[in-house]
Amino acid sequence: MGAYFSEIFYGLKSLAIGLGVTFKEFFKPVVTVPYPYKTIKMTERYRGHIELIENEEGEPKCVSCGMCQRACPSGCISLASKSVEYEVEVKGEMKTKKKKVLTKYDLNFTTCSLCGQCVESCNFGAVTFSKDYNLASSRKEDFHFDLLKRLKERNS
Amino acid sequence: MSGPIHIRPDETFTLNVGPQHPATHGVLRVKMEMDGEYIVKAETVLGYIHRMHELMGENRTYPQVLPNLSRLDYLGALGYTHGHVLVIERAAGIEVPERAEYIRAITVELNRIASHLFWFGAFVMDLGGFTPLMYAIQDREHILDLLEAVTGSRLTYCYYRFGGLYNDVDDDFIAATKAVIPMLRKSLKKYDALVTGNIIFMKRLEGIGPISAEMCRKYGATGPVARGAGIDFDVRKNEPYSVYPEFDFDVPVYHECDSLARYKVRMDEMEQSLRIIEQGIEKLPDGPIMPKKKPKLIKPPKGDYYQAVETARGSFGIRIVSDGTKNAYRFKLRSPTYSNMSLFDEACEGMMIMDALAMMGSLDLVIPEIDR
To answer: Is A47 close to B152, i.e. CB distance below 8 A?
Structure first.
């Protein structure tokens, strides 16, 4: 009989303690953010989808060596380039040299796993992570990014 | 149909729990043969999100598999990537700087607490209490913010590299971690008052869902499930790896074999993880995070390599058979939840369905890790 009443007493006490804990929470500040109206700034190292970096002339730093393409585990990067001849002055003489110019840099973000292998494998520091995270869409095509176009839009 | 359905007293019916059921926390299906409220026989059906991670590990080069490991268990991902980098480092003979190992231990333990916190919330929600989930997620958010600032992602980390880390931690991280530890200690006390002492909670779990030590041995259950059955086994203590021998921590073991014992093991483990983090921050040495000499192309010599690590869910083993090329010949993952879940069929026979689902919650199942 005594055990029965002590159990009831313990039960009521434990419920009162629990209510006390939840009651205290009433007076604590709100920790959530009303998302579409207010957003949180992403941290320095946040990994969004990749983005090309430009050099001083506003052209992409990329030399289209294709290292990122080979390093990617999911094969979501595809790039193309063309050879362009240009003249450069070496010791007072004009010489024609060839260089590769990036013509296409497509990212298929639907299969990207944001591992960062492409950024790490780049020897020229031409690729970085963006801070973009508002990427909701109902169409698959919206996640096929033309990074070259994005770079031009950013510059203009 | 008109009129009530008449069931003969000896007749049983089949109940499908899942593949889409909130109690299974994912796409797990349990086929239960029921006699009224009692389970006569249960059969777990797997494979709804099988993604062939093992085959991917054989088709891709070693660094390309790195992101796969964090997709196994999305709640405690760092523990799994830790095992992967450890086995490749041993196979390829890469020396890891001490600072990198310490940072790995700190981040793994932070991730373990985050995982246990989420489990705590989800488990109490399975039993019908919604409020603790909100508190647990709020605390977990602090840890995820810490890890995001360092690793760049919130759940599916790809932070460890063969030989070291992707990038170093800064003073902000150390200061923020130091601030989070007392806050979490306070929260653990709050959970104790709110949940552990609660009479309804205790009545639901005490003596319910027995999993004996023999059953754990039979099915190979590890982690908190085995420790709740009185088996004192923790890979960090029994087969030490990384810098864990340097830390002073206890392995909580309970002998009651019921759901409450498994709950208590996890709650105590969080405190132990906090202790490890404290010591890790204190001992954190200066130095590089990547070795000076690292092979450009990782090609482990021919051989068979195995490494077990203690993740939030139990002992995770990874076996790699190398044939000397840049791809693994065999890439085998031994996931703890698979073994922990296997004993569910036997353990839940004769139990009431509500108790069986409470026991399933106490097993801490993460389905992508079972199917992998």
So the answer is: yes
Q: List the CATH code of the domain at B13-371.
A: 1.10.645.10
What is the interface pTM, i.e. ipTM, of the complex? 0.80
Half-sphere exposure of A63 (CA within 13 A, CB side): 8
Beta bridge mates, B267: none
Instruction: Confirm whether A77 is domain-assigned.
Output: yes
pLDDT in tens, A81-111: 888 877 777 777 777 777 788 788 888 888 8
Structural domains of chain A, count = 1
Dihedral sign (CA B78, B83, B88, B89): positive
Name the helix (H) or strand (E) containing B305.
strand B303-311
Q: Which residues of B touch A21 (CB under 8 A)?
A: 190, 193-194
Q: Would you say residue A40 lies in a domain?
A: no
Q: Which residues of A touch B193 (CB under 8 A)?
A: 17-18, 20-21
Q: Which domain covers residue A70, as residue numbers?
A: 50-155
Q: Is the peptide bond before A60 cis (omega within 30 degrees of 0)?
A: no
CATH of the domain at A151: 3.30.70.3270
**What integer pLDDT is reported at residue B2 of this predicted model?**
65
Q: Is B196 on the interface with A (CB under 8 A)?
A: no
pLDDT at B117: 92
**φ, ψ for residue B307 (rounded to 5)?**
-140, 130
